What we know:
Elements: H1 2-30, H2 37-49, H3 52-62, H4 69-76, H5 84-87, H6 89-114, H7 118-126, H8 131-142, H9 144-159, H10 163-169, H11 180-190, H12 194-224
Helix pairs in contact: 1-6, 1-9, 2-6, 3-10, 6-9, 6-10, 9-12, 11-12
Amino acid sequence: MRHAFGVTLRFAVGTVLASLVLGLVTAVILNQRMRGRMVFRGVLLVPYLTSIAIVGLLWRNILDPQLGILNRLLLAAGLPGQNWLNEHPVATITAIAVWKDVGYATLLFIAGLQGIGEMYYEAAKVDGATPWQRFRHVTLPQLAPTTVFVSIIGTISALQEFALPYLVTDGGPGNASDLYVFRVYQTAFDFRDFGYASALSYLLLIVILALSVVQLRAGRQEHDA
Length: 225
């Protein structure tokens, strides 16, 4: 179980950090006045709105070492094919999770950006701040509540991830991509140890409740401020 917890921790950290960075960068770009930005926003949300079962099966076929389209493209470009599901299982499901969730993070950051008053940027311009300084000293601090929200929601989602290891890697190779909830499932339905599986589920419940309390307090403090 320590191994499953460690794999889940790596998966959660990688997913949340990548979603934060990519979501913020994409949000800044799509918050600019540009032609077709609403179309791009809609396209980004398609993976998030797609059933996780469809996402898992789609990517399992795409990454298949023999018949997958990704390896075919690599071979066509003169590059060696990769056994994604066996050699890089955790990185693979992390990348798929980021691909699915980054649109949601982008949407939240866009909402946060639109809530920043233009007066802050005007004051920074008067003081001679460069675009980077305005982003660092105005945008990032004003987006702190959104960043906290995205981080906690993303962490809770990552801790509960079951479908990707089940559908894409089957927890393998061996138990290399054995995430926590997938291990709980195996403990209950493969090993028939329902008592231990229940204890593990309660432990996860406590962690998620603690994160939810942090989120509620952060939201309350922002509302009071």
